[in-house]
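User: Here's a chain of 681 residues. Predict its fold as tokens.
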Amino acid sequence: MMRPHRWLLGGALALALGGAARDGIDSWIDATDLPPVLAETSVEMRDRNGQLLRAYQVGDGIWRLAVTPSDVDPKYIAMLVRYEDKRFWDHHGVDPLALLRALGQAVTNGGTVSGGSTLTMQVARLIEDGPTGRWAGKLRQMRVALALERRLSKEAILQLYLTHAPFGGNIEGLRAATYAWFAKEPRRLTPAEAALLVALPQSPETRRPDRQAQTARAARDRVLDRMAGQGALDPAEVAVAKRAPVPSTMHPFPQLAPHLADRLRGAAPDLARHDLTLDATVQAAMERLLREAVRTAGPRVSAALVAVDHQTGEILASVGSPDYSAEAREGYVDMTQAIRSPGSLLKPLIYGLAFDQGLVHPETLINDGPVSFGRYAPRNFDGQFRGDIRVREALQQSLNIPVVRLTDVLGPARVTAALQKSGATLHIPGGKPGLAIALGGLGITLTDLVQLYAALAEGGQGPALSAIRGATGASHQRLISPEAAWQVGHILAGLTPPPGAPSGVVAYKTGTSYGHRDAWAIGYDGRHVIGVWMGRPDGTPVPGAFGGELAAPVLFNAFGRLKQGFDRLPPPPPATLIVTAAELPQPLQRFRPRTAAFAPPEDAVELTFPPDGARIALDGGPVTLKLRGGNAPFSVLANGRPVATGLHDREIQIAAPGRGFSTLVVVDRSGRSARVTVQLN
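Assistant: Prediction complete.
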């Protein structure tokens, strides 16, 4: 015998369909208090082609990705409607025929055989999270379904189902389900995939394929059989689909560019979808490259990389660390934004500024010898001096002394002003730049260094970098002339590449900061610029780490993973002065500071100790003199009298000339001299 609540449910349906009580029913439906239909969906980061880079879970750790019917394979929608609600496009929220069929089956069989719920009624249950079987719950679903049909289109109702349907675990909605079970968007689905996704929401936990494979397979096959019975699939398709395995594991959601994604989400927390300039394929390749690179570099070594189209300013890849979750390497730190010493990476800019100022030309001779600027006496990395050397070679060998000489003439403020024009934010110790900035004596980020090199690659004025689609196009101020930028690039393209890498195709520079804390390599071809940093995020040294050995091979490998081949570097601008050293105008043949007319020759002898005006306690011993520059042999005079001759050493001891003030003079083989006045006690 049929239970009373079944008659009540049937009566409610009759009322809904009957004409006598139409006005009352309409008022009842119109007065329905609908739950919110705008559910929170995962914040998404999409690449330049619309591919998902990263998604964030919504409340309670749910994966629920925004989806519309147009995002979904039409074959799945057709299969869903045929299986769940074949009159979906025609009814008004409640299907009387389906309800009568369900009631008849229940009476005949003494229990529920099939449900009478429409897709709209299922949506009503999902958005209210209400009960399914009790008659009061069913009546509520009918009322909400009828109200939804009056207020929303069929496409909008279908979209609600595609967004809210449960697919096992913390997966809600079809698009989250296709990522979780098939690692892809729902645009193209096989019959086997579509059938499983139709079956899962009916019992998402008992049919979860990674835990209940046989149950999931059986439910999928029932859907396939019904489709075959209705003529929607031919028997051959069904046979192939049934042989397909069900997923054995739940795939992780994409987690590409996590540092950049976190930063952009924090900057625009109300934005549900971020369309970025990144290329998901390139990003994934660069992340794999850095994971490979740090395996042999040490357990605490991290790495970062930024790849950019320097013609448009679009960031194609941004890797803040090799592994976001690697605690030993502090992978959570975004090293593309970390403030680090750039080592020698500012030297190309300084040479470019010097070219523009007419101080030097690539073929100009410049002296790489001992020099001091007050208390600051720069040294080359290897402690050696090379004497006169061409500017081209000084930059290629990354010598310190020549570039500090140029910085002294240019002025450190001019260098920092050019960096700021490039868009860089600088961190200068003490707030006032000194000559040490030429050798890395300031703080700057990898992203800002890539911005600088993008400007060099673009003839001295590059576009502002951006990872947000539509935000690029604006250019920063000009740093140097196109001619100077080409000369710098031509010199850097002449550097010997790492073993196995092609030569002459990338203009690049390496750098190593003081104490081996940072290893750098940044380079560009005719279209792209890539910057690589390697080191420890906490700033501790990495013994033996050099930019040329650690970072440069990664740089060239990155170009290989970015694209096939290289884009040709540009030809020289028409006004570029390309001549030999002998053809240079006389003032450009050898670098001399603008104050050179009033200064001693660069290789003149210099008394570095004792300093002029020093007080020296004799205690009965000799006086020690230390020399720099000049040509041996040397002679020493004390108060006008020779006290030593024919000396070749640069540390000399002479007998004390007596207490009181004395003038000490050193004369070299060429007759050049240096003197100090000291007080001997």
